[in-house]
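Before going further, it is useful to explain how the protein records used in this thesis are read. An example of such a record is reproduced below.

***
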Amino acid sequence: MSVSKIVRKVISTTKAPAAIGAYSQAVQVDQTLYVSGQIGLSPETSDFVGSDVESQTEQALKNMGEILSAANMSFADVVKTTVLLADIQDFARVNTVYQKFFKAPYPARAAYAAANLPKLARVEIEAIAVSSD
């Protein structure tokens, strides 16, 4: 019996903020990419682009887009996202921005309110993508 070895490829780009802990921006296994949670930090300054949930959501998704691009993928390859919110009342505002990046057929999604997010972010979004190649 042949046992195949799982090959993990770390995906990293300077066009998204560096990890602020012991994790990778993304890890690819075969055709599946696991993108770590992204918050609304500027890659250049590592500061939030704004204090409102809309600007943070937009930047978090721009950061995610850069990571997807580094793996030769796009938002169209995303099959599942998880959205973490500092305040569940922000869901509709986040959803409005989210729809600028994701088009039908939309990925599966879960959304939760979290007691605290890294650096007191208003939103954090993680994703799983599958390459169509």
Helices lie at 53-70, 91-101. The mean pLDDT is 95. The chain has one domain: 8-130. The first strand starts at residue 8 and ends at 11.
